[in-house]
Amino acid sequence: MTLTELEAAAPALKEYTKNMPEDIRSRCTVRTHAAGSIIHQKNMELGYFGIVAKGENRVINEFENGNVYMIESNKAIDFIGEVTILAGMSHTSVTIEAVTDNVVAYISRRDAERWLASDINILNLAARHTAFKLYRSSYNNGAKLFYPPSYLLLDYMVKYGRQNGMESSRGMGSSRGMGTSRTPVSVTVLRTRQMLQEEIGVNVKTLNRTIRQLKEEGFFSICKGKITFTREQYEKAIEWLEAEKDK
């Protein structure tokens, strides 16, 4: 696939590539990273810059003792390597793993640095993405230290539901529980227990115990090993979270 073909398949990409110099476009390559594969590894020398046109990935930090900490998850359009390049560092600071298939347009780091220096549009977009990630991280920083596991899991569930169309179901009155093309009847959290452990920041035993407890309390069901919840359960979780904040 060429960059032009990728732009046709993902029109939002054009806002990012519209001022890319022609010689850099000619050297651009498109690659698909399969779900579950590593896009790049922590402490790897960065020789490229990528724009994620399709897919979802997660950013994790791996430590020598084997522990893994999930920093954030991102959906297209997103960047690969922008933090390392903007920071002027040679090696990556995190590992990026594909959650779904990721289609990425790649150019060399040298080309990226020249493009960023000459095109205010792509520089602004890269800076805005980086600033948003920092804002999101700092806004939520500390939650894992001060909230109980039940709060962390339900908060994660609500955010996942919102990202997958549940938010618009609130306040629909008589239509609650009735599916529409935009508001799903239920949502399944497509994460393994290990991924949930890393993203929420609790150990496996605590996570499994919390899942059992919240399932018994009716906040969700388990379908083929995955957390699944309806609109009513989604709204019940929101009410519970709001009540906990008021305590």
Description:
This protein is an alpha+beta fold and 247 residues long. The chain has two domains: 1-141, Jelly Rolls, CATH 2.60.120; 146-164 and 183-243, Arc Repressor Mutant, subunit A, CATH 1.10.10.10. Helices cover 44% and strands 22% of the residues. The strands form three sheets. It has a four-stranded antiparallel β-sheet. Strands 2-7-4-5 form a four-stranded antiparallel β-sheet, covered by helices on one side. A hairpin with a 5-residue loop joins strand 4 (56-62) and strand 5 (68-75). Helix 5 (109-118) crosses helix 6 (120-140) and helix 8 (149-163) crosses helix 11 (231-245). It is elongated, with a radius of gyration of 20 Å.
Beginning-to-end CA distance, first to last residue? 54 Å
Q: Give the low-pLDDT segments.
A: 169-180
User: What name is given to the CATH topology of the largest domain?
Assistant: Jelly Rolls
CATH architecture of the largest domain: Sandwich
Beta fraction? 15-25%
Q: Helix and strand string, N-terminal first?
A: HHHEEEEEEHEEHHHHEHHEEH
Q: What's the name of the CATH homologous superfamily of the largest domain? A: Jelly Rolls
Shape, per Cα inertia axes? elongated
The biggest beta sheet reads:
4 strands, antiparallel
State mean pLDDT (0 to 100 scale): 88
Q: How many strands in all?
A: 11
**DSSP helix fraction:** 40-55%
Domain Cyclic nucleotide-binding: 12-116
Protein name: Crp/Fnr family transcriptional regulator
